[in-house]
Amino acid sequence: MKPWMLWTLAVVVTVGSAVYQRMTGPTHPKRGEREVAGEMIKFRLVRSHGGAGDAEVVVPAPAEAGGTLVWRRFKTKDAWTRTAMERRGGELVGRLPHQPPAGKLEYRVVIERGPERVWLTGDPVVIRFRGHVPDAVLVVHVILMFAAMLWSNRAGLEALLGGGAGLWRLSVTALALMSLGGMVMGPVVQKYAFGEYWTGWPFGTDLTDNKTAVAWVAWILAVVAERRGWRRPAVWVAAAAAVTLLIYLIPHSMFGSELKYE
């Protein structure tokens, strides 16, 4: 295959995996639909809130319907708090009180119209709060991680085709981007968002930190294999690319930072 074809395939795989990761993570909004007063409404309940201020919960509702937000701190025995939602045009708006970074609340929404009461979800929705991450820091992190994934996929395709003179350059670039985006900028973003530079092993269970470290180590081994002339270095590169792709398919923010209220 020609180089431009390999780059095109690498871009497709990278974009696809990035979209899948974002759409399946535990901080992606909870979506659904319910019938209220004979009208089907589609709702979107937030599961992540960054920066200062309370988190707004906004749901569409039929005319003359009211709503109640029922919430408490996550993984506590707190009593449930009930807060009336306000009407704003064709929507009802409720507010969840701001929490410290990595704090979580669980909540449900009930829509009321006359004697009818409809809970939008069966189980509570969990929302995680985080600190404000400067746009410049976040943009640099995202660009570097996307580029790391792109070069990883491109190097993996090159390795599967037997590996040419460009395999070393592709591998070193993938490692450099993973180092900058994941092991340098990743902890910076983590510090802004949750107050700690690293919450993966051995200090915690943050899967985002852990999977980044696994991919980084895999690329170190691949580059060393090429540099030291290990047997079949292309296999090491292909393996590093496969590991990176697999961990990128793990939903974002799984087992992420969580404040222990007790």
Question: What's the gyration radius in Å?
Answer: 23 Å
Number of strands: 11
User: Which descriptor suits the 3D outline?
Assistant: elongated
Distance between the termini: 58 Å
Strand % is 15-25%
* Proportion of residues in helical segments: 40-55%
* Low confidence ranges: none
For the residues shown, what is the average pLDDT?
A: 90
What structural class is derived from the secondary structure elements? Answer: alpha+beta
Number of helices: 5
Order of helices and strands: HEEEEEEEEEEEHHHH
Quick one: biggest sheet? 6 strands, mixed
List keywords for this structure.
2 domains, 262 residues, six-stranded mixed beta sheet, 5 helices, alpha+beta, three-stranded antiparallel beta sheet, Immunoglobulin-like, elongated
Structural account:
The protein has helices at residues 3-24, 135-160, 167-194, 207-228, 233-248; strands at 30-36, 39-45, 48-50, 55-60, 66-73, 81-84, 86-88, 91-96, 104-113, 116-119, 125-130. The mean pLDDT is 90. The chain has 262 residues and is α+β, with helices and mostly antiparallel strands. It contains five helices and eleven strands. It has two domains: 3-25 and 133-248; 37-130, Sandwich (Immunoglobulin-like), CATH 2.60.40.
